[in-house]
Amino acid sequence: MTELAPDALLAGMAGMIASGGLEVVDLTHPLDPDFPVIVLPPEFGQCARFRVEEISAYDHRGPAWKWRNFTCGEHTGTHFDAPVHWVTGRDQPNGTTDSIPPERFIGPVCVIDCSAEAAADPDFLLTEGHLRAWEADHGEIPADCWVLMRTDWSRRRGADYLNMHGDGPHSPGPDGGAISFLVHERGIRGFGTETIGTDAGQATHLDPPYPAHSILHGAGRYGLQCLRDLDRLPARGAILIAAPLNIRDGTGSPLRVLALVPRAGGAA
Ligand code: 23J
Ligand code: MN
Fold it and tell me: Would strands 173-174 and 125-126 be described as parallel, antiparallel, or unpaired?
């Protein structure tokens, strides 16, 4: 690969974005009171939905301006999980939203298409075997990249999203072997999903329980949840921009996740 001088690289990139040669894909759901939040067993504290209240709207409360206050949880809507979110990551250095080095917020991304499997089985578990099959087609997953699990779950609406049954939620996710492989054999930066969590709905029954949260954050890696439209990304070759809010001591935050995607047939 030819090395471009950094200034030429950035100028070229800006030009490619302006001309559409690099497509900017928004992987973010709107923050909306109707968007579901994770529901934990009733003995535990719960995440707040997004809520908005008007301060003024060009009226007696403020004649020339409109603005609003909003409230939500750190894990509401499309959001980032920092290492300190999980007890296994509580002592990780740079484990909070305000201490993660900003260069960690931009990096390459691989997308594992599990849409057919998830359509056939809402409890589908991604395994090391699936990841090795992906690598046979697309090459080895590079160190320090994001790995996103495409399930097309972001097309679900209402109660179908959490898919709550009497025995808890049912949604796809990785098993412990898959996450262990990605973290310890491939050295990934983080793992993201279209579902409410990085873990499967029934992940409390896995070994370890909540393997994605437990293993990723215990190793100082990150999570992304409630992503949308992962079908718009190539298996590899895109760059992800995922910068959480700079919340003091934050365990995570809603954010805008953008992918820069080389347009097929675009100028080289
Ligand atoms: C708290 C407890 C369990 C889980 C979660 C939060 C999440 O999925 C989250 O939003 O990180 S599984
Ligand atoms: Mn979270």
Answer: parallel
